[in-house]
Amino acid sequence: MTSRTPIASIAVLGAGVVGLSAAIAFARALPGLAVTLIETPDDAAALTDRLSGTLPSITAFHDRIGLRERDLLAAGATHRLGTRLSDWSADGAPVVLAQGERGGTIAPGAFHQHWLNARRAGKTAAFDAFSVPAVLAAAEKFVHPSDDPNSPISGFGYALRLDPPRYRDLLRALARHIGIVPVPGAFAGVERGEDGRVSAVLLADGRRLVADLYVDCSGPAAPLRSALDTQWDDWRTWLPVDRLLLGTAPVQTLTPTDDLVAVPAGWRFASRLRDRTLVGLAYAADQTSDSSARRILPAGDTIVPLTPGARPEPWKHNVLALGDAAVVLDPLADANLHLAHAAILRAIDLLPGRDCAPTELAEYNQRSYRQAARVRDFQAAHYLPTGRTRGPFWKHASRLSRPDSLAHTLEHFAHRGRLPFYEDESFDKDDWHGLLLGLGIIPRIADPIASASPPDTIAATLKRLAEATAALPARLPPYPLYLAQLERAR
């Protein structure tokens, strides 16, 4: 048996949301670990540190680091059930995307296949009418899922909408509680050994920091990780957005739904926080000038250039890149923080010894890249030709090529409504069904198992189910009232 020296110290560059998350998670997982958290100047292009949207997976990460939902609510978080896409498809009808099962088991065969058969016969409601969280989100209502599996409000997921500065303050307080105090410093360079590993990080004030593992959470420039190489897979071939205009608008009534509205130049988004509304415009720089973008979104005050893509090797030697230092995506799918948290937990689960042996690093890099690429595919699917061609952005987007993995997914789905299996998916089959069917992408061939059920019986069942689901919001209070009830009960 070979003995391997464990990692005893890490240095984290960047004390934003990603850096704090990494420092806390590593310290929680490895008692006695020496953690140096270097608070570099904030990078305005580090989107993961400033976006509010999350996926339901954030609960698992918070469980690992010791945060509860009530802690997040006290720090300004609110509940998030889904996203409403408006003017996205040919008919302009809004589509609400929410995570969770749709319809359940109503007969042999997948629910969406029964829905497709009924749709072909013109006898059913829209697909999102069978999603409890989508219906609640559309009605701007929220309730926690029931623990009773027989309840109509069980079995769905929900996420949180964060207030980024207050969330960062919460993480900073937790870091201090476990003995991690950020130290200010500006990155100046690295020292490297003959084996290519980093032997020290150099700061502008002359300090020399030594650790077993160096973690770059500083943003897309990633000066620490880029000191080893600058490999980057550029995804602009498939993703049309390379510019964001961000800003703040007045407070609006809280809802558990975020809005994405297609406009000729790209798409606008709005995320309602307790004391303000975060707004943005996603566009392409070669089609829309920054001055034009500001006219479209007068509340915008910060322009963030993007180069969507990912590092094929986020972990090289003893340097690990996380967050925007590893993968850059616009906020279309709200997966930025999800990918960062998933990468942190994966790094801990696959943690090598101090030698950072290639076996663990290769597995980490393959899985991290694969997960990021499937989020890329999910985002790229939003731009499939659906008949919406108004505006130069959408005309260009409809002509974009597709990654092989997305083309493979669409080929299977377009044939008979099935999806191929991919490892490390962030969005499950129900999410893919909701997006593709919501955009009006209909498979060519009916499923033989679902087609064996009597169509009239299925149509009647779907009608009852849609009516029952539509009736659920009327039983619930407005979301601000529900949130106030939760806070009084704390």
Query: Strand portion, in percent?
Result: 15-25%
Return the domain count. Answer: 3
What's the total count of β strands?
21
Per CATH, what is the topology of the largest domain?
FAD/NAD(P)-binding domain
Q: Compute the CA-based radius of gyration.
A: 23 Å
Tell me the number of helical segments per DSSP (H or I, 4 or more residues long): 16
The portion of residues assigned to helices is 25-40%
Commentary on this structure:
- 45% of the residues are buried.
- Strands 5-4-14-15-16-13-17 form a seven-stranded mixed sheet. The protein has a six-stranded mixed sheet with strand order 7-2-1-11-20-19.
- The model has no long low-confidence stretch (mean pLDDT 94).
- The chain is built from 16 helices and 21 strands.
- The chain has three domains: 9-52 and 163-234 and 307-376, FAD/NAD(P)-binding domain, CATH 3.50.50.60; 95-160 and 403-484, no CATH class; 243-304, no CATH class.
- The chain is an alpha+beta fold and 490 residues long.
- Helix 1 runs parallel beside helix 6 (164-177), helix 4 (111-120) crosses helix 15 and helix 9 (336-349) packs antiparallel against helix 10 (358-381).
- It starts with 8 loop residues before the first strand and ends with a helix.
- It is globular.
